[in-house]
Write a structure and sequence with these properties.
- A hairpin with a 2-residue loop joins strand 11 and strand 12.
- Strands 9, 10, 13, 14, 17, 18, 19, 20, 21, 22 and 23 form an eleven-stranded mixed beta sheet that branches. Strands 1, 2, 3, 4, 5, 6, 7 and 8 form an eight-stranded mixed beta sheet that branches.
- Helix content is 23%, strand content 30%.
- The chain is an alpha+beta fold.
- The chain folds into two domains: 257 residues, PmbA/TldD fold; 295 residues, no CATH class.
- Helix 2 packs across helix 3.
- The termini are far apart.
Length: 613
Amino acid sequence: MKSRYLIALAIAIPSTVAQAKKIPAEDLGPASKAVTDEIVDAVAEEMDRAMLHLAIPGAPKPYSISYKITEVDVNDVSASLGQTTSRRNRHFVNLEARVRVGNQQFDNGNFVVPDGAELDGTAAATLPLEATPRIARRAAWLVTDQAYKEALIQLRAKIEARRAGGGARPADVPAWTTEKPVVSDEPILVPQLESLDELEARAKKLSTVFRDQPGLRDSHVALTSYLERRWYLTTEKTSVTDTRRASGVVISVSGQAPDGQLLGNYFLRYGHTAKDLPNDKELEQESKRLAESIVALEKAPQLEKYSGPVLFEGEGAVGLIRFALAPHLGGTPVPEGLSPQETRVFGGALTDKVGLRVMSSNLSIIDDPTTRDAGKNALIGGYKIDDEGVAAQKVEVVSNGNLKTLLTSRTPSQKGQTSNGHARRPSDGQGGAYHGSATNLFVTAKGGVPRAALKQKLIAAARADGLKYGVLIRRLDDAAITGAPEFTRRELIQMIKTTDPLLPPPVVMAYKVYPNGKEELVRGIQPTEIPIRAWKDVIGVSKDVTVYNFLAATDSQLALRITGGTDDGFVPSGGVESSIVTPDLLLKEIDLTGTTGNLRPLPSVAKPVTASK
């Protein structure tokens, strides 16, 4: 890369060798062949030219231009009952330009244009895998021009909205923070992708487990192996590259209760490579457990209304944090121009509570994107730089229940706030700003007890409330996986009208826990909205911790349910790489309701598998 980026103010990023030192050199794949130094230099030259000459008479010139070049290479395979249902490779390069006009105190950013939410000062184009510097520079010229014109429209609309009295921010809070440039041009080498043949053979083998499970409505096994290389260039002299690599497996099954309620369950795991995933024997055992769970759910009663203590165990605790806490840990302000309903969905309930107690005093939270592992478990949420080209930082979010800081991007919510390298969540249709979001989230607690003892705490808390039982939740739904594109138009309209987007996902696996310790499986459970204040009443935690990797979808659970999930039945490979490490959590009072949705008539004819026997 060109030496003009190597300036004294730049942050030095650790060498790739340190990150890959545990990986034998012979296992590492090559550097990118699609995006070369010459390609990046061509984009940089066009960036410099745009800063000098890009202007429209009477309109402000850009004060900041940035580019993100993304190369994605994905192998996906899906199989059902021993046969391949899908097999594909996706390999492409995307060039995105972001232009800011105005100045750092007031610019076009983080504003939703009325009836023009797509106008956000960004533009993108796909580059050929065999692009030349000339092709890359021409693409950069076109997307920069488009992004600049969008930014001007966005700025004008923002000025008019401010004049009309809508959404003014404190004058001493800037629109965009100044951050030190980051320079690191050394390619990050990662293990090669598992081949399509390898993935297909494994998916077909694992999916045969369900051949002798006539109680299932549907089943599939999917495997993915992907990498994402990124290059960032800015007029602030940042020039940096990063690579993210992951492999995943999802096993999904569905059934239908006698009353017509559709049932589903799933098993999902991600790691840096396939070596981090369970082996075939372990996955076969998980598959059998999933099949057994559907049969059990078909016979299980529905839960009536419940208000009382709830124990979130294992993946249930992960789901609680993922959907009811993590969205509020970001410090990016709500975009101006959102409707009241959209504002509520955005999250950010903690932006005005820094310095206050927001959780039980025994709980602490750290987010650390600089680490790749939690003990022997791989974490996929790590990265070197965030989506605004800022170096990743370890952040203490909550200490002994007190909110110390939030996860921030370059769009501050208060005076003096700067980015701590957590701009990860994109904001399509929400003003163009990246939002600060969790990556590798560690929840730690004092006073943890064994799981059996925590279950007794649940029983005691339920008894103290005069209840006949407590509730134990082990898994919440994830529409990115279980969303089924089989709803009729009438069903979709009904779903949109009746589903509250603020609610956590429905519960997949939950149990009544009686005073004698007996567990009774129940189905059809929908948690109500879980307020932030509920985190002050965590009355028990476990010594055991759960480590869970996932891709945080950028769409809402409702949108995923309507569209049939992500990636058409494949393992989700789109979203924000995320990890959560947490103990089990016993909350003093949570409201649960029975759900009567997701019903459809039973088939008039028996399943083909059943009929053939």
